[in-house]
Amino acid sequence: MEFTVEQIALMLNGEIKGDKSLKVSQLAKIEDGTEGSISFLANLKYEHFLYTTQATAVIVDKTFEPKKEYSPCLILVENAYSAFTTLLQEYQKILANQKKGIEQPSFISNSATIGEGEYIGAFSYIASNCKIGKNVKIYPHVTILEASIIGDDCTIYSGVKIYPNTHIGNHCTIHANAVIGADGFGFAPQADGTYQTIPQLGNVLIEDYVSIGANATIDRATIGSTIIREGVKIDNLVQIGHNVEIGKNTVIAAQTGVAGSAKIGANCMIGGQVGINGHINIPNKTIALGQSGISKAPNKEGTILSGTPATENIDYLKTQALIRKLPATEKRLREIENKLKSNE
Amino acid sequence: MEFTVEQIALMLNGEIKGDKSLKVSQLAKIEDGTEGSISFLANLKYEHFLYTTQATAVIVDKTFEPKKEYSPCLILVENAYSAFTTLLQEYQKILANQKKGIEQPSFISNSATIGEGEYIGAFSYIASNCKIGKNVKIYPHVTILEASIIGDDCTIYSGVKIYPNTHIGNHCTIHANAVIGADGFGFAPQADGTYQTIPQLGNVLIEDYVSIGANATIDRATIGSTIIREGVKIDNLVQIGHNVEIGKNTVIAAQTGVAGSAKIGANCMIGGQVGINGHINIPNKTIALGQSGISKAPNKEGTILSGTPATENIDYLKTQALIRKLPATEKRLREIENKLKSNE
Amino acid sequence: MEFTVEQIALMLNGEIKGDKSLKVSQLAKIEDGTEGSISFLANLKYEHFLYTTQATAVIVDKTFEPKKEYSPCLILVENAYSAFTTLLQEYQKILANQKKGIEQPSFISNSATIGEGEYIGAFSYIASNCKIGKNVKIYPHVTILEASIIGDDCTIYSGVKIYPNTHIGNHCTIHANAVIGADGFGFAPQADGTYQTIPQLGNVLIEDYVSIGANATIDRATIGSTIIREGVKIDNLVQIGHNVEIGKNTVIAAQTGVAGSAKIGANCMIGGQVGINGHINIPNKTIALGQSGISKAPNKEGTILSGTPATENIDYLKTQALIRKLPATEKRLREIENKLKSNE
């Protein structure tokens, strides 16, 4: 796609300094700008790039005053950073809306219903009694099994696998090859050392505005639902066990695992590679730093946790400092021992 | 599906207290019971839910005596919990057996053989010389490459990718998007800093009653076989390296990684996010707690390991207690130093 | 496939001791050798297997002198180990080249271009404006989205998902169900506790001779490119965040995560389950041991790191030794206290 500088200035409510007929077709960082690209300058730390960039146009704050010669056409706006973000979002929307219709071959059960504005990629599979909302984009190689419900304005990327009876709200995004609703890991030990599979008959319930990363896995509940509340953001390769509940607007970074029946509060921030024990109840606004291992829940909201086993971060830092001092401690101890010996 | 209370009581060998013609169509926890659902009461801690639940029917122990009015129809059985489990399993079997036949389009080589009772989902790919047993359910988007063998009564969920020459036993379940048989991670360092790929020509051998989680990866051997013994249960996102052998009935929780050529004994329980070094030999019945990092194998069966580097859990707990006491230790040391100073 | 011992000796420039007309059809470890298999003996530690193996042929160093009777035909070469590796590679090449042509049904946009020597598996999806080089093997269920470029001699295994605008060099291998180019994990916190999605409009750039493991995820950049340099080898289930750059010939083992905007130097060796913080700059030749958590970059090349938070391995080992001595330290401290008390 190609836009004139004028079109973009109109979209951003900006003022043009330069040739309004210039055309741009891609977005770039100011230091990487090439002909045909548009960039932005928000932080004056990067001002020097304006004087060397090959970008065709640069969005700047309207208060900005250049100190040297520059070649790009400028678009002056209230706030260059947020204007550029707006531009990114508009561009994304345009791209997303280009995908329309049902590609063939695809496999859609007669009993499935699909709202208008849909995109169904080739080789997608929608089983019986599924209900797909409006403006849903389903990329190739998605499997949606029986009686699953997907709300409006969702995007399901390639290779996502959704087990039966999954409920997904509106405005959700699920990235490629994520698996929603596989069996919880439940096996009953038998007297002979073998394990019997405990049937997993619950489902996964995902509310609105949830984002789930590539290759993440969310197991369905044994009975009842594994629940992902409104606004939750889950990164790539995260594991959510059966019967877990993740509270509203909680964010979980990559490769973290939440064991079965844990309940995580709202507005928590969980770092990458964190492990959370089963059957514990993490309060709202808890912050868990990367790689921490949470075996017990903190007893108040807003606690910052780190380490394994996780403790309050401030205690962790003190302990780490003392651990680093162990060689000195050892030396002091030996000195005392020597002194006492020589005193004898 | 819908059943009458009478049908269910017959299946469970139970006695009915209430209207035997009532119909139920789903399973629920007693506190979540709605009209049309059946639940159970096994632990009297939850007895109060019986008096408020909207469930149509509730399975109870035949020794149970209600203390208040209740609305559901009761089904009295020997053991309510195990009766409910039986119900879950029967329900699961009914669901599973509904899937039958070969959906189109699918891609099945002429030289592949498939036993009776099969389900092959649309867009599945079965390459030449594969042998698929009886009653095997292969969901959409599965790839099974050349000369792989799958036993009877297996379920292979959507998107599973099986590399050539993989051997899978009977009664196995592989969850969505798991990858069986990718290249082991083997590269020979060259003088110029680059790496040459070491061809990985072995395979993966999976015995009977094995379960493998969603998005798990099991690499094939360089030469010979990566072996998963009978009854092993592997959770989501687990990594099994090349030439690893996992002993009978060992259970491995999510996101654990086992490096190349490690051998894990039988009846071990490995927690989540555990790392196991290559080329070590873990004895039978070892228990590794979550996030532990096992660089050396314990020297006897039944050891409980934790921490990184992993030690016996009892030592780990002692050490952790002493680490938590480090601030106090520091204080004691300073007091001694002060005392000695003032004594001088 | 079947070869005579003579054909193999020719390929390896070896000399035959035995019946050159014998036929072999598989490769095996010497201890597992069965009739029809060929093996090798490089390390004399395994010499005893030569006298018991059922292998039809065994490759040995030409300096090797057997001490007992043996049954296999021998092939004498300069270096048995490297000859066997050559054999593995040749075998692999033959297998790979058997895959040719475009299987149906597949979905290839009219505007996509594909070089000669291609294999496109059934149910593969190649979107508009993609450019695929020569001798590229694309297995079933691969999705390659708009305007992506793949160089010559690449192998893309089943179920790999490639987002739009991804650039992949020559001689790359991507294993099953890996996801290249999903959204970076970028969300701007709002005053009301919700998060706004930050559009991710960059791409992923992968240079030549890169290998990426099964179920690995490499996010695209917010703006600009996430870059994987020439010769990088990435294992299964690894997470590479947005705007990361991985330097030439760096090797990353399974389940490691690299957070957004981190830059890793050339020729590094990163172990399994390592966590690397965002926005840090790891120097060339850094070695990170398994499960380490790198929050700060080391300040010189070639540093060996371990532990969380990661320190130089030599310091880590000292600290670990002192931690193990804590019970003894506690005892010494108590003795001193008692002595001082009794002196009072």
UniProtKB/TrEMBL annotation, chains A, B, C:
Alphabetical UniProt keywords: Acyltransferase, Lipid A biosynthesis, Lipid biosynthesis, Lipid metabolism, Repeat, Transferase
MF (Gene Ontology): UDP-3-O-[(3R)-3-hydroxyacyl]-glucosamine N-acyltransferase activity
EC number: 2.3.1.191
Domain UDP-3-O-[3-hydroxymyristoyl] glucosamine N-acyltransferase non-repeat region: 22-89
Metabolic or biological pathway: Bacterial outer membrane biogenesis; LPS lipid A biosynthesis
UniProt xrefs under InterPro entries: Hexapep, LpxD, Trimer_LpxA-like_sf, UDP_GlcNAc_AcTrfase_non-rep
Gene3D superfamilies hit by this protein: Hexapeptide repeat proteins, MurE/MurF, N-terminal domain
Record keyword Iron-sulfur present: no
Enzyme class: transferase
Active site: H242
PANTHER family (UniProt xref): UDP-3-O-ACYLGLUCOSAMINE N-ACYLTRANSFERASE, UDP-3-O-ACYLGLUCOSAMINE N-ACYLTRANSFERASE 1, MITOCHONDRIAL-RELATED
UniProt function note: Catalyzes the N-acylation of UDP-3-O-acylglucosamine using 3-hydroxyacyl-ACP as the acyl donor. Is involved in the biosynthesis of lipid A, a phosphorylated glycolipid that anchors the lipopolysaccharide to the outer membrane of the cell.
Protein name: UDP-3-O-acylglucosamine N-acyltransferase
Species the sequence originates in: Arcicella aquatica
Lineage: Bacteria, Pseudomonadati, Bacteroidota, Cytophagia, Cytophagales
